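Usage example:
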Amino acid sequence: MTKLRVAPGPAGEAEFETKPLRINVGPQHPSTHGVLRLVVDLDGEVIKRLSPHIGYLHTGFEKTMEHRTYQQGVTYSNRMDYLHGFAHDLAYVLSVEKLLDAKVPERAQRIRVILTELNRIASHLMFFGTGILDMGALTPFFYTMREREKLLDLFELVCGVRMNYGYFRIGGLAYDLPEEFIPATRAFIAEFPAMLKQYAALFAKNDIFLSRTRGVGVISQETALAYSLTGPSLRASGVPLDHRKANPYSGYQDYDFAVPSANSGDVYARFMVRFTEMTESLKIVEQALDRLTPGPINDPNRRISLPPRSELETSMEAVIFHFKLVTEGFHPPRSEVYVPTESARGELGYYIVSDGGSMPYRVKVRVPSLANLQALEPACLDGLFADMVMNIASLDPVLGDVDK
Amino acid sequence: MGLRDLFEKDVQELENEGILFSTLRKLVSWGRSNSLWPATFGLACCAIEMMQSTNSRNDLARFGSEVFRASPRQADLMIVAGRLSKKMAPVMRRVYDQMPDPKWVISMGACASSGGMFNNYAIVQNVDSVVPVDIFVPGCPPRPEALVYAVMQLQKKVRGEVFDDKGLALPMVEGWKR
Amino acid sequence: MSAVALIQALGSKLIDQPQGYPAVALNPAQLPDAARLAKEHGFMIMDVFGIDWLTYPGHRGKRFTVSYNLYHLETNSRLFLRVALNDGETVPSVTGVWPGANFLEREVYDMFGIKFSGHPDLRKLLTPDELDGHPLRKDFPLGETPTLFNEGRFLDPTAFRAGLIGKDVGLTGFRGGARKGVKSRD
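Running the assembly step on the lines above writes:
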């Protein structure tokens, strides 16, 4: 390995040859962002080889979803990437709606976009909190969590839960927004930019932050594309791919927002791309709120959406439809479908194969974090061991997403 | 105030003068219950809510969990937060074995307590089959307030103030009963 | 070059699943050339996954399909390469073309047991080493433990679900009721 010279001893100058050291990081480790295990070959402090071992959170989502009806699948999808749960819910319901050729009303689409973008901001806030915590700074964690709590309060207003929501239905939403939601969201939009300035003041000019992130873990554009990196990490390497712009879904073509990208491909670029994305997401939320008009929130097709509860008291057909939909579920035609969407981590899509039954035949989730994690090795090679922690943090893997 | 006064005055008077009486056991339990240091064992979504319980709004540190120790050798509480997959189970047992006595386990969330919504080949259906659990917290995920309540119940258990329906005190550490 | 041009260059049969995206049916021998051609034209690999057609009603053809989800950046077009194979056949690996296919192919191997020849490190990715078998195959059971209630009652989830939708409840057929010989607690 490396040859070192040591200071002259009693026998004169001596030469050392170092040996490679193989160490194991995780799966229980504070900075692996979940149960990720890395086997690292080190020469001194320099990483020579890195091999991720995953599967410590393998839950068998795809197999379980084959034994649940399509509507029950919504409870499973957001537990995969629990930090951006609405992105998974949205991707799943979009795929099933494409299978059924369901018409989702505009109000439902706008509410879905509002919630997904607010969740994207919450996910990026958690990214910042834990990313800088991995650098050793405790304080930004508490600041970003303060904002995240406000967002979780908004979600609790709408869905009843702070995380792992069950709000999206095939064909629309479960119920309409409460009246307190819109004023509360507007209050959040009004105060969040000032908070972002606070975060920027906390770390953007900090010497330690800059020296730990600039030039560290560079992923070139060719490497990123070869390793199927997507999402903010790809945009930080110079490829401005965003499926909200490239393949718009759920009304994203109506909103005016930019897609931040950078060219350096280092950890600093990945941090800054996500930072700017929070501002852009806020713009989308504001525009969607402005365009929100009263209207139905479900596809009127009785074979997909549950009838309104008031009808259950008077109409027998409504009761029968309700019973059939809840116990057995609807039967989509035999087909296969894929809808690519953009989650906070990259391209997310549900490939659903339907055999005409009430449960999907095969659900394959194209998760962004699994492909993103492969880019860890080229980013860390010939870098320092301490930089590996920052590389993991900057690629933002969520192990529930990786292991499914 | 001489030694004679100590024997002649009664407890109430002495307490008013600032002398407290207790047993060594109660004193040690009081110290232990108010400084439970969790080991970081967040697995999935419940780990996020566990992190949220340490933030400024739901502050777990005011109950004594000032730091989440990365090394199990310096921790006495393991909060199993999230779904335990069968691949992770031996790793969890090793981490539990590395913790020094007395140690407690809180099984946080539905997945850790019973397998939750995942009744399949990959998830351990009850963490109690791998490590002895003291407190089960239901929820998917449990609110941070629920986790704080669980820590408070554990503190009561550590102090010996919890009894089962037959009137017997529950053991301080669940693992010592097995 | 867009997906349509690539398909013409491949000269293979075009099929229309999934909805809205072109898909090409290939046999395993044609895959390496198709992958190299796609890479030259600028496609990146997004996903590799398998489908087991064992219990698909009315399926005639080979048992497995390995599908490659390719995406072209400049023209924003997507193409699916579908390779049909039976149990025991191998597929040439595309890790030489796209290094990002490494974990994706390992996952297909772990879940379906489909071997990829030429893969640098083909071993299980997600399931524990003790688990024998390949979970996503249709003949691998879900592994549900019965739901237990008081007084010896338990539910078999599969039979319960089948009973709900009017299907055959299967061998156990057990949908509730106490086990014989177990007395009630009071």
